[in-house]
Amino acid sequence: MSDYELVVESALDGAEHEFKGVTVSEVIGKSLVMIALPRPKFKEIESSMIKSCGLALPEMERSTQSKDSSIVLWRLQKNQVLAYFSYEGNDAEVNIANRLNSPAYYTDQSDTWAMIRVSGPRSRDVLERICPIDLSKNVFSVGNVSRTIMEHIGTIIYRDDEDSYVLLTMRSFGISMLHAIEVSAKNVL
Amino acid sequence: MIINHPLLGPRDSEEFVYLGAADLINRPNNWEQDASAEDFYQYQYIRENIAGDHRELWYHEQGDQSWLVVTRNTLSHEIINVELAQDVSRGIGRGK
């Protein structure tokens, strides 16, 4: 046994800020696993995911949910999907591989990302100042997901509810991203 | 400048990286023959300086990481056509 213990810390220390009409908070308790899809196996992978969890492969920049809504798949590139799901253990890769039971390649990315939720009736007003993607209600619908750039920071944006968006940036950019969102909120609200 | 990505729709050019003329797809295949030195010289260094419609390679780095062939007017910056480089390459019998 080693005489020290590693302590789990979230990227933004559980940050939460309230503004008038908008809440900015760190998303915790979620895991993220990249699933690489070998081209000749697209169909085999899809049919085994449907069988195990009721998950179809999403179209580009769309997401699909498992039957029990616990796993969400994001398609940001043709040959890979990201699984975003509730899990806090250290073995997210094994966990999702067992649940999906599909012949793909899995890589745990949970701790490399900072995840921030921007929610509330004025969330779009705050985000539209920093996001080059059209976030209009009927263009970027619930379930849409995109990879883009905000304030020079590579960001994944996912709309998980009517007025709720999850933003992912590389962990080392988390504080800068949080700052960018808060500055925008102060400017707008 | 907005680039109309064939898979993802209109996207800000800030998400992309520019490489250069689309001729770079046509890498010579004759590297074991004598003529290859001249062909590689042409491929590597000789470019046309077009005032008008120019086909060029853009990389969607902050997006889906695809390569695109964008036809852009170098005088007006109007973007006339956008194709997946993969399709262009296959169309001329290269790649898988």
Put the structure in a nutshell:
The complex is a heterodimer of chains A (189) and B (96). Chain A has 189 residues and is α+β, with helices and mostly antiparallel strands.
Task: Explain how this protein is built.
The complex is a heterodimer of chains A (189) and B (96). With 189 residues, chain A is an alpha+beta fold. Chain A folds into 2 domains: 91 residues, Probable tRNA modification gtpase trme, domain 1 (Gyrase A, domain 2); 81 residues, Alpha-Beta Plaits (2-Layer Sandwich), CATH 3.30.70. Chain A has 4 helices and 11 strands; from the N terminus they run E-E-E-H-E-E-E-H-E-E-H-E-E-E-H. In chain A, the strands form 2 sheets. In chain A, strands 1-2-8-11-10-9 form a 6-stranded antiparallel sheet. A 5-stranded antiparallel sheet of chain A has the order 4-5-6-3-7, with helices on one face. Chain A is globular. The mean pLDDT of chain A is 94. Chain B is globular and about 45 Å long. The longest helix of chain B has 10 residues. Chain B is of the alpha+beta class and 96 residues long. Chain B contains 2 helices and 6 strands, in the order E-E-E-H-E-E-E-H. Chain B has one domain: Folate-binding superfamily (Folate-binding fold, 2-Layer Sandwich). In chain B, the strands form 2 sheets. Chain B has a 4-stranded antiparallel sheet with strand order 3-4-5-6. In chain B, 17% of the residues are buried. Classes of the chains: A alpha+beta (189), B alpha+beta (96). At the A-B interface, strand 9 of A face strand 2 of B.
* Fraction in helix of chain B: 10-25%
Strand portion of chain A: 25-35%
Number of distinct helices of chain B: 2
Strand percent estimate of chain B? 25-35%
Number of helices of chain A: 4
Radius of gyration of chain B over alpha carbons?
15 Å
CATH architecture of the largest domain in chain A: 2-Layer Sandwich
The CATH architecture category of chain B equals 2-Layer Sandwich
How far the N terminus sits from the C terminus of chain B, by CA atoms, comes to: 32 Å
Q: Largest chain-chain contact?
A: A-B, 13 and 12 residues
What top-tier CATH class of the largest domain in chain A fits best? Alpha Beta
Helix- and strand-based class of chain B? Answer: alpha+beta
Oligomer: heterodimer
Detail the poorly predicted runs of chain A: none
Helix content of chain A: 10-25%
Structural class of chain A: alpha+beta
What is the element string of chain B, with H for helices and E for strands?
EEEHEEEH
- Gap from first CA to last CA of chain A: 53 Å
- The count of β-strands of chain A is 11
Instruction: Give the biggest beta sheet of chain B.
Output: 4 strands, antiparallel
* Annotated CATH homologous superfamily of the largest domain in chain A: Probable tRNA modification gtpase trme, domain 1
